[in-house]
Specification:
This protein is 30% helix and 34% strand. The chain is an alpha+beta fold. The chain has a single domain, classed as Aminopeptidase. Strands 1-2-3-4-5-7-6 form a seven-stranded mixed sheet, with helices on both faces. A hairpin with a 2-residue loop joins strand 2 and strand 3. It is globular, with a radius of gyration of 15 Å. The structure holds coenzyme A. Coenzyme A binds next to strand 4, helix 4 and helix 5.
Protein backbone atom coordinates (compact mmCIF):
# COMPACT_ATOMS: atom_id res chain seq x y z
CA UNK A 1 0.00 0.00 0.00
CA UNK A 2 1.22 3.49 -0.86
CA UNK A 3 0.01 6.91 0.17
CA UNK A 4 -0.02 10.06 -1.93
CA UNK A 5 -1.24 13.49 -0.95
CA UNK A 6 -4.62 14.04 -2.58
CA UNK A 7 -4.73 16.10 -5.75
CA UNK A 8 -7.43 17.19 -8.14
CA UNK A 9 -7.23 13.92 -10.11
CA UNK A 10 -8.42 12.04 -7.01
CA UNK A 11 -11.56 14.08 -6.42
CA UNK A 12 -13.83 11.99 -8.65
CA UNK A 13 -12.74 8.84 -6.78
CA UNK A 14 -13.79 10.44 -3.47
CA UNK A 15 -17.12 11.62 -4.93
CA UNK A 16 -17.82 8.17 -6.40
CA UNK A 17 -16.90 6.38 -3.16
CA UNK A 18 -19.16 8.71 -1.17
CA UNK A 19 -22.07 7.89 -3.47
CA UNK A 20 -22.00 4.43 -1.84
CA UNK A 21 -24.23 4.76 1.26
CA UNK A 22 -21.94 2.53 3.34
CA UNK A 23 -18.88 4.61 2.51
CA UNK A 24 -20.85 7.79 3.08
CA UNK A 25 -22.09 6.84 6.52
CA UNK A 26 -18.66 5.66 7.62
CA UNK A 27 -16.99 8.82 6.35
CA UNK A 28 -19.60 11.38 7.23
CA UNK A 29 -22.13 9.96 9.67
CA UNK A 30 -25.85 9.51 9.21
CA UNK A 31 -26.69 13.06 8.11
CA UNK A 32 -26.53 12.94 4.32
CA UNK A 33 -25.33 16.02 2.47
CA UNK A 34 -24.90 16.60 -1.23
CA UNK A 35 -21.41 15.61 -2.32
CA UNK A 36 -20.17 16.96 -5.63
CA UNK A 37 -16.81 17.51 -7.27
CA UNK A 38 -16.97 21.16 -6.13
CA UNK A 39 -17.88 20.45 -2.48
CA UNK A 40 -15.06 17.90 -2.13
CA UNK A 41 -12.61 20.23 -3.83
CA UNK A 42 -13.56 23.04 -1.43
CA UNK A 43 -13.18 20.70 1.53
CA UNK A 44 -9.74 19.55 0.43
CA UNK A 45 -8.59 23.10 -0.23
CA UNK A 46 -9.84 24.25 3.17
CA UNK A 47 -7.29 22.02 4.97
CA UNK A 48 -4.33 21.78 2.59
CA UNK A 49 -2.07 18.77 3.09
CA UNK A 50 -4.52 16.84 5.26
CA UNK A 51 -6.02 14.25 2.89
CA UNK A 52 -4.11 11.24 1.62
CA UNK A 53 -5.12 8.64 -0.94
CA UNK A 54 -4.30 4.94 -0.45
CA UNK A 55 -3.15 2.94 -3.45
CA UNK A 56 -2.76 -0.79 -4.02
CA UNK A 57 -1.48 -2.15 -7.35
CA UNK A 58 -2.18 1.17 -9.07
CA UNK A 59 -5.78 1.34 -7.77
CA UNK A 60 -7.20 3.87 -5.32
CA UNK A 61 -8.52 1.92 -2.34
CA UNK A 62 -9.33 4.56 0.24
CA UNK A 63 -8.25 7.70 1.97
CA UNK A 64 -7.27 9.12 5.31
CA UNK A 65 -7.20 12.55 6.83
CA UNK A 66 -4.40 13.64 9.14
CA UNK A 67 -4.86 17.09 10.61
CA UNK A 68 -2.53 19.02 12.92
CA UNK A 69 -4.43 20.52 15.88
CA UNK A 70 -1.46 22.34 17.41
CA UNK A 71 2.31 21.81 17.55
CA UNK A 72 1.97 18.70 19.74
CA UNK A 73 -1.35 17.18 18.75
CA UNK A 74 -2.66 15.85 15.44
CA UNK A 75 -5.82 13.97 14.54
CA UNK A 76 -5.89 10.75 12.54
CA UNK A 77 -9.38 10.44 11.13
CA UNK A 78 -11.75 9.50 8.34
CA UNK A 79 -9.66 6.47 7.53
CA UNK A 80 -11.64 4.52 4.98
CA UNK A 81 -10.50 1.33 3.29
CA UNK A 82 -12.49 -0.08 0.36
CA UNK A 83 -14.54 -2.99 1.78
CA UNK A 84 -12.86 -5.45 -0.61
CA UNK A 85 -9.45 -4.60 0.87
CA UNK A 86 -10.32 -4.63 4.57
CA UNK A 87 -8.89 -7.00 7.15
CA UNK A 88 -5.64 -7.38 5.20
CA UNK A 89 -3.53 -5.08 7.36
CA UNK A 90 -4.02 -1.94 5.23
CA UNK A 91 -5.60 0.16 8.00
CA UNK A 92 -2.65 -0.71 10.23
CA UNK A 93 -0.13 0.07 7.46
CA UNK A 94 -1.73 3.48 6.86
CA UNK A 95 -1.50 4.44 10.50
CA UNK A 96 2.13 3.27 10.70
CA UNK A 97 3.05 5.15 7.52
CA UNK A 98 1.44 8.37 8.79
CA UNK A 99 2.97 8.10 12.26
CA UNK A 100 6.44 7.50 10.80
CA UNK A 101 6.28 10.28 8.18
CA UNK A 102 4.14 13.42 8.53
CA UNK A 103 3.13 12.37 12.06
CA UNK A 104 6.61 12.07 13.43
CA UNK A 105 6.73 15.58 14.92
CA UNK A 106 3.56 15.18 17.00
CA UNK A 107 3.68 13.91 20.58
CA UNK A 108 0.00 13.01 20.81
CA UNK A 109 -2.22 11.56 18.08
CA UNK A 110 -5.96 11.56 18.66
CA UNK A 111 -8.71 9.74 16.80
CA UNK A 112 -12.45 9.69 17.31
CA UNK A 113 -15.06 7.08 16.55
CA UNK A 114 -18.37 5.85 17.92
CA UNK A 115 -19.06 3.02 20.35
CA UNK A 116 -20.85 1.22 17.45
CA UNK A 117 -17.73 1.07 15.30
CA UNK A 118 -16.15 -2.17 16.54
CA UNK A 119 -13.66 -2.35 13.64
CA UNK A 120 -12.34 1.16 14.34
CA UNK A 121 -12.19 0.57 18.11
CA UNK A 122 -10.28 -2.69 17.67
CA UNK A 123 -8.04 -1.14 15.03
CA UNK A 124 -7.07 1.81 17.26
CA UNK A 125 -6.65 -0.38 20.35
CA UNK A 126 -4.43 -2.79 18.44
CA UNK A 127 -2.28 0.15 17.32
CA UNK A 128 -1.72 1.30 20.91
CA UNK A 129 -4.44 3.95 21.26
CA UNK A 130 -6.33 4.33 24.54
CA UNK A 131 -9.79 5.80 25.12
CA UNK A 132 -9.52 9.17 26.87
CA UNK A 133 -13.03 10.60 26.54
CA UNK A 134 -16.47 9.05 26.09
CA UNK A 135 -19.48 11.28 25.45
CA UNK A 136 -23.06 10.25 24.74
CA UNK A 137 -24.41 11.02 21.25
CA UNK A 138 -27.75 9.25 21.76
CA UNK A 139 -29.07 6.99 24.56
CA UNK A 140 -27.24 4.01 23.08
CA UNK A 141 -24.34 5.44 21.07
CA UNK A 142 -21.29 7.22 22.44
CA UNK A 143 -18.50 9.21 20.84
CA UNK A 144 -15.15 7.82 21.91
CA UNK A 145 -11.91 9.80 21.64
CA UNK A 146 -8.73 7.75 21.58
CA UNK A 147 -5.19 8.97 21.98
CA UNK A 148 -1.73 7.61 21.45
CA UNK A 149 1.31 9.19 23.05
CA UNK A 150 4.58 8.89 21.25
CA UNK A 151 7.04 7.43 23.71
CA UNK A 152 10.29 9.43 23.66
C1 LIG B 1 -11.45 0.61 10.47
C2 LIG B 1 -10.76 0.25 9.13
C3 LIG B 1 -10.07 1.47 8.57
C4 LIG B 1 -9.71 -0.84 9.42
O1 LIG B 1 -9.01 -1.10 8.22
P1 LIG B 1 -8.43 -2.55 7.87
O2 LIG B 1 -7.57 -2.41 6.67
O3 LIG B 1 -9.52 -3.54 7.80
O4 LIG B 1 -7.54 -2.81 9.18
P2 LIG B 1 -6.53 -3.99 9.47
O5 LIG B 1 -6.68 -5.10 8.48
O6 LIG B 1 -5.18 -3.38 9.62
O7 LIG B 1 -7.05 -4.52 10.87
C5 LIG B 1 -6.49 -4.05 12.09
C6 LIG B 1 -7.33 -4.55 13.25
O8 LIG B 1 -8.57 -3.85 13.28
C7 LIG B 1 -9.57 -4.72 13.85
N1 LIG B 1 -10.65 -4.92 12.88
C8 LIG B 1 -10.63 -4.59 11.56
N2 LIG B 1 -11.82 -4.89 11.00
C9 LIG B 1 -12.58 -5.44 11.96
C10 LIG B 1 -13.91 -5.93 12.00
N3 LIG B 1 -14.69 -5.94 10.92
N4 LIG B 1 -14.40 -6.38 13.19
C11 LIG B 1 -13.63 -6.38 14.31
N5 LIG B 1 -12.35 -5.91 14.33
C12 LIG B 1 -11.84 -5.45 13.18
C13 LIG B 1 -8.86 -6.04 14.17
O9 LIG B 1 -8.39 -5.95 15.50
C14 LIG B 1 -7.71 -6.01 13.18
O10 LIG B 1 -6.64 -6.80 13.57
P3 LIG B 1 -6.66 -8.39 13.21
O11 LIG B 1 -7.05 -8.52 11.77
O12 LIG B 1 -5.26 -8.82 13.49
O13 LIG B 1 -7.66 -9.00 14.13
C15 LIG B 1 -11.77 -0.36 8.09
O14 LIG B 1 -12.53 -1.37 8.73
C16 LIG B 1 -12.72 0.65 7.49
O15 LIG B 1 -12.41 1.29 6.46
N6 LIG B 1 -13.91 0.78 8.09
C17 LIG B 1 -14.92 1.67 7.60
C18 LIG B 1 -14.55 3.12 7.86
C19 LIG B 1 -14.36 3.39 9.33
O16 LIG B 1 -15.15 3.01 10.17
N7 LIG B 1 -13.30 4.13 9.62
C20 LIG B 1 -12.98 4.57 10.92
C21 LIG B 1 -13.64 5.88 11.07
S1 LIG B 1 -13.54 6.48 12.69
Amino acid sequence: MELTLINKNDIDFVVEALSDPEFYEMARGPEVKLVTHDTIEQEINSVPGAWWIMWEDGKRIGWVRFTPKNVWVAEFGQVIVDPEYRRKGIGSDVLRLILNSVGVVFKIIISTTTSKNVAAINHLTKMGFEPVEIRPITDSVKRVTFQKRRSQ
